[in-house]
Design brief:
This protein is an all-alpha fold. The protein has helices at 3-24, 29-45, 55-86, 89-94, 97-113, 116-127, 132-139, 143-176.
Length: 185
């Protein structure tokens, strides 16, 4: 076994229970185990720069991971709450899963047809939740340029969805008005 593996094994043996215990006080067992494991994965990657007394550093990493877990859980719950607030009991009765599949496929097709730069601008804002300054840094442009790109990308998306919906409505109308032939003809 080389020196790096020995150092990590010693670090793990001395501190794993403490990190897991810290996480267990703040999260469910499954989440706590994941946080402890990911903490030591980060420790492995940064083994050469760990402080002399690594426990506080390890607990800080675990704390940050728990905070991220909590934030993402809160975001998911907020989304569920917003959806629940926008729907009624009757909505659940009239929803047709086939319509949702078609809507999803339409949206995916429209997104796939957009330029990559448009997708990136929208993903940074909506998926990753970056403010314009940070998104602009990722895209390598000024904040003003990013805002213009995002605005244009959203307009193109809206226009493409509108066109796709209009065409889809026309197709749906054609399907429902197709002449029905009886067996006699």
């Amino acid at each position: 076994m080389d020196d790096r593996q020995e150092r990590f094994t010693g670090l793990y043996d001395r501190n794993y229970r403490r990190v897991l215990g810290y996480a267990l006080l703040r999260a469910e067992p499954g989440v706590a185990e994941d946080v402890a494991s990911e903490t030591f994965l980060i420790a492995w990657k940064r083994l050469n720069v760990l402080p002399e007394h690594p426990l506080p550093w390890l607990l800080g990493v675990a704390r940050n991971m728990l905070a991220k877990q909590r934030d993402s859980r809160c975001q998911r719950q907020a989304l569920v709450d917003r959806i629940a607030a926008l729907t009624t009991a009757q909505d659940h009765l009239i929803w047709d899963i086939a319509e949702h599949v078609v809507d999803r496929e339409t949206a995916l097709a429209v997104l796939a047809a957009l330029p990559e730069q448009d997708l990136e601008a929208m993903a940074l804002a909506t998926w990753h939740g970056l403010p314009p300054e940070q998104a602009a840094a990722v895209m390598g442009c000024s904040t003003r340029t990013y805002n213009v790109r995002l605005h244009r990308a959203r307009k193109r998306l809206g226009k493409a969805l509108h066109v796709e919906i209009e065409e889809g409505t026309a197709l749906a109308h054609l399907r429902t008005t197709r002449p029905q032939f009886s067996e006699e003809t």
